[in-house]
Amino acid sequence: MLQQIEHIAIVVKDLELALHIYRDILGLQLVRVDEVPAENVKVAFLRLPHGEGHVELVQPTDTESGIARFLEKRGEGIHHLCFRVENVAAAMKQLLSAGVETIGQEARVNREGRRYAFVHPKSAHGVLIELYEAPPT
């Protein structure tokens, strides 16, 4: 089912301060910074060494968003692990049939048209897992 790590998401209070560490000091290559109004966040994607996935720095843009509540409750740190899968719908069907709790029954679609879904932390030993559909080849 899982192909590789797509990204590791880290919630931060200040995206520019976080970029100073991950880009300027650790040397990860900044790929892009995006506003994601649907999720009320600003994100920076940095390529992991050897091009195998990304670090995603996530800063809330709204004090009432889920990410803002996470930050308020738990502070900065890892928010979720994201794995690439070939087909999100098939992966969700397999997970649901195995009794795994997901967040929602249907995949979401991002601005690029790629589908993604989340496994609830209750079913993954406290870790929020995102499944992200591989780009068409």
Descriptive terms for the model:
alpha+beta; eight-stranded mixed β-sheet; 2,3-Dihydroxybiphenyl 1,2-Dioxygenase, domain 1; 137 residues
Give the SSE string: EHEEEHEHEEE
Distance between the termini: 17 Å
Helix/strand class: alpha+beta
Largest sheet, order of strands side by side?
Answer: 2-3-4-1-5-8-7-6
What spatial form do the alpha-carbon principal axes imply?
A: globular
Give the name of the CATH architecture: Roll
Radius of gyration: 15 Å
Q: What average pLDDT do the residues reach?
A: 93
The percent of residues in helical segments reads 10-25%
Question: CATH topology, what is it called?
Answer: 2,3-Dihydroxybiphenyl 1,2-Dioxygenase, domain 1
Helices, by number, come to 3
Low-confidence runs of at least 5 consecutive residues = none
Give the structure's gist in a few sentences:
The protein has one domain (2-133): 2,3-Dihydroxybiphenyl 1,2-Dioxygenase, domain 1 (Roll), CATH 3.10.180.10.
Task: Provide an overview of this structure.
The chain has helices at residues 15-25, 66-74, 88-97; strands at residues 2-11, 29-36, 41-47, 54-60, 77-85, 102-109, 115-119, 128-133. The chain is of the alpha+beta class and 137 residues long. It has a single domain (2-133), classed as 2,3-Dihydroxybiphenyl 1,2-Dioxygenase, domain 1. The chain has an eight-stranded mixed sheet with strand order 2-3-4-1-5-8-7-6, sandwiched between helices. β2 (29-36) and β3 form a beta hairpin. The mean pLDDT is 93.
